[in-house]
Specification:
41% helix, 4 helices, 6 strands, Nuclear Transport Factor 2, Chain: A, alpha+beta, single chain
């Protein structure tokens, strides 16, 4: 019986060490995936609502989106975007795919940006977001986000 307990303890220890080692190599947990999914949604909802401060909060302090860098640059972009779209923009993301990296995660997703001020709603741009993410004291954040627009080159959205 003692021998069986030792074997069970050894198997448990090996399993726990293996899990710890895997996390150190960049494994995302189910909680990480859920939080990152919420981050993607928060990005869209804040930008479309014109909440520039909340939108900038989804990035790290030195975050980059297109030509906008750092919190002040991000807030300025979001304010201008909402004004330009007159509150009629709706971001729609699909097929979010996140991969663990040694420094955090990389993500991609499809983007459709709609103008809901027209009837029927009209597509402004479609493309793919390419993201770099980091887990911070405030949770998962984008460190950089780049848009690869479909079709002719368009500015970042």
């Amino acid at each position: 019986m003692l021998k069986m307990m030792r074997i069970a303890f050894l198997a448990l220890a090996v399993t726990l060490l293996g899990i710890g080692g895997a996390q150190a190599q960049g494994i995302l947990t189910a909680a990480d995936y859920a939080e990152i999914n919420q981050l993607y949604a928060s990005y869209n909802l804040a930008l479309d609502a014109g909440d520039a401060e909340a939108w900038a909060d989804v990035f790290t302090e030195d975050g980059v989106f297109g030509n906008s860098e750092g919190r002040a640059g991000l807030v300025e972009f979001a304010t201008g975007f909402h004004g330009q779209q007159q509150g009629n923009a709706r971001h729609w993301n699909a097929n979010v795919h996140v991969t663990a990296t040694a420094d955090g995660a990389e993500g991609t997703c499809y983007l459709m940006l709609w103008n809901v001020g027209t009837r029927p709603a009209s597509l402004i741009v479609s493309g793919i977001y390419h993201d770099t993410l980091a887990k911070t004291a405030k949770g998962w954040r984008f460190t950089s986000r780049r848009v690869e627009a479909d079709g002719p080159a368009q500015s970042d959205r």
